[in-house]
Amino acid sequence: MTQPLDTTPEVAAALQAGDPVVSLESTIITHGMPYPQNLEMARRVEAEIRAGGAVPATIAVVAGRIKIGLDQTTMEQLARMPQAQVMKLSRADLAVCAATGRTGATTVAATMICAHLAGIGVFATGGIGGVHRGAESSFDISADLNELAQTPVTVICAGAKAILDLSKTLEVLETLGVPVIAFGQDQLPAFWSRESGLTAPLRMDDPVEIARAAAVRAALNIPGGQLVANPIPPEAEIPRAEIAPIVDQALADAARHRIGAKAVTPYLLQRIFELTEGRSLSANIELVLNNARLAARIAAEAARLRAAS
Predict the structure, then answer these.
(1) How far apart (Å, rounded) are the C-alpha atoms in residues 248 and 51?
(2) What are the mean pLDDT values of the chain's consecutive 10-residue runs (309 residues total)?
(3) Of 13, 192, 255, 271, which has the highest C-beta tally within 10 A?
(4) Closest C-alpha among 106, 109, 20 to residue 67
């Protein structure tokens, strides 16, 4: 059976030529914010990647076809769709969505799978999933972590989402053999905040180093990708001392209302948005744009390394 994969002419031409390409997830469009802000955001992120000299490839499943890159019409249709009509896809349900002809938005794990299938090695997102607080009893751990351990894509994020147990997330990534690289600083960033209080296992200050590390990892036949934690710009951050009690309150509210399973993260993000009077969303937008800029630089360096080899 052939892969249900459609690549836009722009992305296909860039891949054929060996030009830099950056993949993007689509849950930010369907589950991140309402229309038309979601569409505006998606277009801004793609524009940042183009400004950095790379081609953006937003990934989604539309009517059972995996789309590597979205044209403007398809992106707007996706942005307008009610959430109830769009599956939120990870490794477990990506194939089911394609097989049943449904439409779905890709999370970090599913985007990595599709990007690798298409031959794209760099992916920009906001924050990855990880180990939820209380996971020692709930066993709630994101599939993103295992995906990083097995799929060779460099993922640029602002750290794991601060609603998670960051120290346990770091421990699981270490156990899985995933390189966790802080860009330009020693501390692991924490999504809305530049600092988490945790020292990052690795630090790199130059995109060419990051691109070279991915190439050497591949040459050594070490499976999996690498995680680049890129701190949010200083002017956009909500400092850790300020956001920590807000996250604690949101978690307490979720427990009081018995919010669980897949409903936890959307509830917490919405509650934090309310408690910060919208600052968390503004910060989220800025960190995604910042990650897109760094991803374009890394993809450009990776393309130069391929051309020189």
Answers:
(1) 38
(2) 92 98 97 92 98 98 98 97 95 97 98 98 97 89 97 97 95 98 98 97 98 98 98 98 96 91 85 96 96 98 96
(3) 192
(4) 106
Distance CA 181, CA 157 (A): 10
Q: What are phi and psi of 32, to 5 degrees?
A: -90, -40
Q: Which residues are annotated as a binding site for substrate?
A: 88, 108, 142-144
Q: Which two tokens stand for residue 234?
A: 């200083």
As annotated, the binding site for Mn(2+) includes 140
Query: What pLDDT sits at residue 266?
Result: 86
Q: Which residues are annotated as a binding site?
A: 88, 108, 140, 142-144
Answer yes or no: are the C-beta atoms of 21 and 11 closer than 8 Å.
yes
Structural tokens at position 48: 């940042």
Q: Are 196 and 187 in contact (CB under 8 A)?
A: yes
Domains of the chain and any CATH numbers: 1-120 (3.40.1790.10), 126-309 (3.40.1790.10)
Start-end of H helices in 1-154: 9-17, 27-30, 37-51, 72-80, 94-99, 108-118, 135-138, 143-150
Catalytic residue positions, numbered: 25, 161
